[in-house]
Amino acid sequence: MAAAAAHPRNQAWWELMQPMQEPLESCAEGEWWADMEELVHTE
To answer: How many structural domains compose the chain?
Structure first.
């Protein structure tokens, strides 16, 4: 994962996408990811 994060193309993609992302209202202050309810479970 660290190697992928360091790749210049990934860095460019994240820089491009960052302004398009907003945390959900249910997120705590400073929290980026939110837990979601599992809708479908397959094994």
So the answer is: 1
pLDDT tens digits along 1-43: 788 888 999 999 999 998 998 888 888 888 878 888 899 999 8
Helices (H), 1-43: 2-6, 8-17
What is each CA distance from 42 to 6, 33, 35, 37, 38, in whole angstroms? 34, 23, 19, 15, 11
Give the integer Cα–Cα distance in Å for 12 and 18. 10
Structural domain containing residue 9: 1-43
Residues 31 and 26: their CA atoms lie apart, in Å, by 10
